[in-house]
Amino acid sequence: MKELDPDSVLIGEVWEDASNKIAYGHIRDYLLGDELDSVMNYPFRSILLDFLLGKKDGQQTHLALMRLYENYPAQYFYSTMNIIGTHDVERALTLLSGAPPEHTLSKEEQSGYRLAPEQWELGMARMKLLSLFQMTFPGVPCIYYGDEAGMHGYRDPLNRGTYPWGNEEQEILSWYKKMISIRNKYAVLKTGKWLPVLAEGSVYGYIRLIENGLDVFQQKRPNNLAIILLNTNTEQEISLNIDIKKYRQSNMLDLITGQAHSIVDGILDITLKPWKEKYI
Question: Is pLDDT at 113 greater than 80 in this prediction?
Answer without folding.
Answer: yes
